Amino acid sequence: MRILVLGPVEIRAEAVEGRVVPLGGAKPKALLAALLLHARQVVATDRLIDLIWDDSPPASATALVHTYVSSVRRAVAAAGRSGALTTKAPGYLLDVDPTDSDLEGFENHLYAARHAERQEDHESAAGLFEQALRLWRGPAFGGVEAAFARAQATSLVEERLGAEEGLARCLLHQGRAAEVAAHLRRLVNANPLREQSRALLMRALYESGRQGDALAVYRDGREHLLEELGVEPGPELRELQAEILGGAPRASTATKRRVVVRHQHAVPRHLPPDLSDFTGREDQLQAILAVSEADAVTAPAVVVSGFAGAGKSTLAVHAAHRLRARYPDGQLFADLRGSERNLGAFEVLGRFLGALGVEAADLPGDVDERVEMFRRRVDDKRLLVVLDNARDEQQVRHLMPGAPNCLVIITSRSRLTGLTGTVGVELALLSAEASVRMLGRIVGVTRVSAEPMAAATIAQLCGGIPLAVRAAGAKLQARPHWPLRALASRLSDERRRLDELAVGDLAVRSSLRLNYVELDDLHRHAFHLLTLLDLPDLGSWLAAPLLDIPLDDAEDVVERLVDLRLLEVAGIDAIGRVRYRFHDLVQLFGAEQAMRDEPADGVAAAVCRTLATWMALVDAGASKLPRVTLGLGQQVRTRVELDPRLVAETEQDPSGWFKSETSAVVRAVERAHELGIDEMTTMLIASLLSSPFAARNEFDGWQRTHEVALAAARDSGDTRAEATVLAGLGQLYYEKDEFPAALAYFTQAAEGAEQVGDRATLAVSLVGIGTVHRDLADFRAARDHLVRAARIAEDLGDLSVVTATDYGLGATWRDLGDLPAATSRLTRCVEAYRELGDERGAGLALRGLSLCHRAAGSADLAAELSEQAEAVLRAAGDQLGAAYATQSLAKARIRQGRTEGIAEALADCLTLCTSAGDRFGVALVTRTLGELALAEGELAAARGLLADALAKWTELDLPLWQARTLRDLAAAEALDEETMAQAHWDRALALFAEATTREATELADLSPLAWSHVVRL
């Protein structure tokens, strides 16, 4: 298998010339590209959503990602690498070899070529450069418009040009100047501002005996640079021109550097050294510089705040160096947390006064007198004071000079809002681009350019923390023989990441410890447990069950962690609550401390309390949502006392609550299992979550919780629990329209349930088996399993399962043509659902009844019942079910000849089904749009829509629906493509006959042309 991105994104089954495997549209290609850029690493679903939709995802993004994953999975399997794309919490893993990708092949060839060139093996280097360039088929990531792909494509353009130039250099070293000149001419024409390519062309022309042409290339480049950028050529081009004019160009040129020795003034110069590789923070730097220019009555002050390792001190020192000329009377610096000991004003003022010329013997012994002396000494001076690592306002108040011609820059992890008259400058995480740029300035741009993907991975794993990037850079500097991918691989192991990000005094762990030691017992316990859960985000309420404290106290605890920059605000959730999250490195640090200090039984008790609370809230929310699946695993719930405010906000907006809490709940279930805290708690959670997940098509979360529950059940040898979860997985895969997988899970569930005598789960599993068989047009098997399920459910007195079998049998009789029996079953079904108080079930049964009357030719009654179904389902909150009712109403309207407004209604249904990841619904609505076009005589549109629907039914492998679509496609082609129409018609009849459905009899004496007259208005 080959994954190709250096051109249009493709998967090929063999070598480069091999067969292209169908992959789908832009979004599956974007998913594949994102996974390939992180090959052999788990990419979180949330991260994939951000990448695919450029941080503006639709509400159904999670479900759509799962759909795209399925598409890519099929393509990978078709290319011969089944299993290469796997689900692995919290996302997906593409496990491919470097040789499977043209991108990694290009990077590897380029790395080897540059290494060979450094070793002056120009012949080998040229061959490697050529191999790298042959992999290109066009612009990189063709067909993917996501921002990440465009950014990578831009970076790869530079890499490709670098490879072209490298090849040219090697050929020049081999004396092949004439051969390379034509190639370089094309390169320069395409990139007229690229001075390196122009310099190589000048050398090639000169060495070919064409001195005049070489100088003409220089003049042309100078004109371009002046016209487009307003600058002269760089020193390399200018020196090369002079050397050619002199008749002896050297092999290379170098820029001379001048050493400037500055006179040292007898004033305090206490600033630490500036960093030559300072990167980013331009807006924050300008904000500090602007404060120094503003008019002030007292000394202007800036508070630079941010999390541990954000680069506060680096920014303050860099800004201070930029401002030295404005403050000629000196710069004072004090680290207020030197050697992890908080320095008081008395000691710091003693140092400052000494630097300002006060003898030790003359220093006052009282802090207030030192403050007075300090302010007198600086009153007429232009002085810059940097106070680094301030803990709180009290620590710096005495150190503020009163003179307006002084400037104070303070750094602190707190915002120090108690200091009046200060300007706040907040440091956020570095962007990925800035992190890579910073890494390049530390280890060298050439080294980073040689491995852009590895550099991006390092930047990502450093999480935008400058200290982490600097530590990673220092490690690479200390190991110049390491390729960047070696460090990227080591950082990918969460267990050792903090160890890897420690070199000398650059250590993320040590930086985090400064705030950690300020935690009291309660807040340290909270920090431990919250980081141990490793949630993507959380509400403050979670600390209440976790710590067994009141809800109001929980909010105070969480906010204290925010104040100490150990926790950050993530935003506002769907029901208006603040959500919080840990930075990845903070979470790793906290979990590390928790595993060392927290007793296992205490952790287990805390997690169980929290899961029990979540269960109760899930119950409260689920009771307000339509039930989509049959109930499973009705175990006894753990009794917990809930704050009424939590219950009220859950019941008030259950959809919003589930949207806010789903990712956290799913991760908590997984984490509990990872920590060995099973005790059937994960089983309970997984069972409870079936309904809300199914209602919102949250396939990813549904699958992850059930996979955890299945592992827990199998680990404990609990066959009853295993059967329950297998039935849940059957329901999941049925909702995903993956019918063979659903049938396999339902069958396994039935076997396990029968083995342990769990007749309730057996009945649900049999309903699932019968339903899948009905969709696959195996009506005999469907009827047998549904009848057996009905008998068991009647014995158990489970009316919901009995009614589900009635619905399935009614649909089966309808397809087989026994319309009176179908109508009777579905009428009983409507009544039973109403007795159960299940309005959603009643709405779906009304729609099923509508289909019976439409099949019997009663279009008016069919339309009336579909309208009722639509209203009932909307009132029940089932928008997807309402879309199906709208579709059946559209079909009835077509039969009535009342087509006005149908296309618009169906377009809305198509949008909803697509966003919900409902492939069956998409195919059904597409087919109905085709039928509408056919009825209105729009034959070309009908053919296109019906062919699209047929492809979708074929992908779902549903023969009856293929037959129905083939029948209508034959009618659409009857006037223009008689041979094709007859072929479609014959195939449809064969499928109907094989399934023994009513259509086999209805169409027996008709032709495609005759059917076209029946269905056209």
Explain briefly what this protein structure is.
This protein has 1017 residues and is an alpha/beta fold. The protein has 47 helices and 16 strands.
What report would you give on this structure?
This protein is of the alpha/beta class and 1017 residues long. The protein has 47 helices and 16 strands. Strands 8-9-10-7-11 form a five-stranded parallel beta sheet, sandwiched between helices. Strand 15 and strand 16 form a beta hairpin. Helix 23 packs across helix 26, helix 31 runs antiparallel to helix 32 and helix 37 packs antiparallel against helix 38. About 1% of the residues have low confidence.
Note the topology.
Blueprint: E1 2-4, E2 10-12, E3 20-21, H1 26-37, E4 42-44, H2 45-53, H3 61-78, E5 85-88, E6 91-94, H4 102-118, H5 122-134, H6 147-173, H7 177-190, H8 195-207, H9 211-228, H10 235-246, H11 282-293, E7 301-306, H12 312-322, E8 331-335, H13 345-355, H14 367-378, E9 384-390, H15 393-397, E10 407-412, E11 422-427, H16 432-443, H17 445-450, H18 452-461, H19 466-478, H20 484-491, H21 497-500, E12 502-503, E13 506-507, H22 508-516, H23 521-533, E14 538-539, H24 543-547, H25 551-563, E15 568-572, E16 578-581, H26 584-597, H27 600-622, H28 644-652, H29 654-674, H30 681-696, H31 699-716, H32 719-735, H33 739-756, H34 759-775, H35 779-796, H36 799-816, H37 819-836, H38 839-855, H39 859-875, H40 879-896, H41 902-915, H42 919-935, H43 939-956, H44 959-973, H45 978-995, H46 998-1002, H47 1008-1015
Parallel strand pairs: 7-10, 7-11, 8-9, 9-10
Antiparallel strand pairs: 1-2, 2-3, 4-6, 5-6, 12-13, 14-16, 15-16
Helix pairs in contact: 1-3, 4-5, 5-6, 6-7, 6-8, 7-8, 8-9, 8-10, 9-10, 11-12, 13-14, 16-18, 16-19, 18-20, 23-25, 23-26, 27-28, 27-29, 27-30, 28-29, 29-30, 29-31, 30-31, 30-32, 31-32, 32-33, 32-34, 33-34, 34-35, 34-36, 35-36, 36-37, 36-38, 37-38, 38-39, 38-40, 39-40, 40-41, 40-42, 41-42, ...
